[in-house]
Amino acid sequence: MRPTSDEATHRLAAPAVPRSTERPRGLALLKASHPMPAAAVTVLAALMGAAFGLDLASAATAVAAVGAGQLSIGWSNDRLDLGRDRAAGRRDKPLATGDARPGTVGTAACVALLVCVPLSLACGLLPGAVHLGCVAAGWTYNLWLKRTVLSWLPYAVAFGLLPAFLTTALPGRPWPPLWLTVAAALLGTSAHFANVLPDLEDDLAGGVRGLPQRVGRSGSVASAAVLALASCVVLTAGPTGRVSPAGAVLIGLTLALCLAAAAGPPALRRGRVPFVVVLAMAGLDAALLVLAGGPVT
Questions:
Q1: What does the CA dihedral 69, 70, 76, 81 come to, rounded to 10 degrees?
Q2: DSSP class of residue 194?
Q3: Which residues 6+ apart lie within 8 Å of 115 measured at CB?
Q4: How do residues 95-145 score in pLDDT, each as one tens digit?
Q5: How far apart are CA 30 and CA 15, in angstroms?
Q6: Distance set, CA 30 to CA 97, 109, 111, 139, 153 (Å)
Q7: Rounded to two decimals, what is the model's pTM?
Q8: What is the Cα–Cα distance from 212 to 219, expressed in whole angstroms?
Q9: Which of 12, 89, 126, 247 is a good FRET partner for 28, with 20 to 30 A between their CA atoms?
C-alpha cells in the first residue's frame, strides 16, 4: 500500500537538513535500521531455534532470514517517516538530521527484503511462507496500520508466527502448541505499547494515531504491563496446564514489575522508567519463551 498523496506531499515539502559530518555514513545507516529492536528479535529467534533443536545449518539460515527481515522493516520505517521526523526536529533520526541519505536507506530496505526472501524459503516452503508473513506484517505496520487503531495487529501476528517459523523448519514440520503462539503474540503486543512510550508525544505531534497514542501514556503503560503479565502466565502454565512453584515465583515477579510500571508515582510514569520496567518484563517473558520452547508438539 502506498502513502496517501497528502503524506507524499508532506515528505517532499519537508525542509532539507544539512548533513552532519560528525557521524560516518555507515554508522548512520546502521542507526536508521533500528538496530536494538532488530538485534533483540534476531537473538530471540536464535535462542528459540536452539531450544527447539534446530541443527546448526538450519538455525543459521533461519537467523539470517530473521535478521534481514528486521533490517528491511527498520530501514523502511525510518524512510517512510522521514517527513514527519524532520518536521518534529528529531535529532535521534539519521535521516532527519541528514547523516543518512534517503536513497541509501530506501535501497538498503529493498535489498534487505530481497535477501530475506531466498533465505526464508531456504528453510523450506512452509517455514519460508510463515516468515515472509511475519515480515509482511512489519511492512504493513510501517505503510498503514501504524496510524490506525489496529497498530497492535502486526506485532501480534509477527511475534505469534515466529515460533511457527522455527518449528516448521524442523523435520516433520511440526506446528507449535497453541499456548506458545498465544504467549508470543501477547509478548509482541506488549512490546508494541512499550516501544512507542519514548516517542509517544512526538508521534502525536506528527499525526500518528495508533492504539497506544489513542489511549495515552498511562493507558499504554498499563496495557504493556498487563499483556506482558498475561504472556508470563500463559508461558508458565501452558506446557503442563498448571503453575509450578517456580512458575508462581516468576508470575509474582512479573506482577510486581507490572504494578511498578502501571501504578508508580506520576513523576516516574512520565519519564522513561515505565519503558525500562516494561522492557524488563518483556525480557523475562522472552527468557520464558525460550525455556518453554523445548517441546513443540
A1: 160
A2: H
A3: 68
A4: 999 999 999 999 999 999 999 999 999 999 999 999 999 999 999 999 999
A5: 23
A6: 14, 11, 14, 18, 27
A7: 0.86
A8: 7
A9: 12
Q: Which of 192, 226, 221 is nearest to 208 (CA)?
A: 192
Domain ranges of the chain: 1-173, 177-297
Domain 177-297 sits in CATH at 1.20.120.1780
CA-CA distance, 50 to 56, in Å (whole number)? 8
Mean pLDDT, rounded, for 157-183: 95
The single-letter DSSP state of residue 99 is: S
Domain 1-173 = CATH 1.10.357.140: yes
> Is the Cβ–Cβ distance between 194 and 211 less than 8 Å?
no
Alpha-carbon span 128 to 148, nearest angstrom: 28
Q: Which three cell numbers stand for residue 191?
A: 512490546
Three-class secondary structure of residue 44 per DSSP: helix
End-to-end CA distance of the chain: 37
| Per-state percent for the chain, helix, strand, coil, to nearest 5 | 75, 0, 25
The length of the chain is: 297
8 Å CB contact between 162 and 134: yes
C-alpha cell at 263: 501504578
In a 13 Å sphere around the CA of 173, the CA atoms on its Cβ side amount to 8
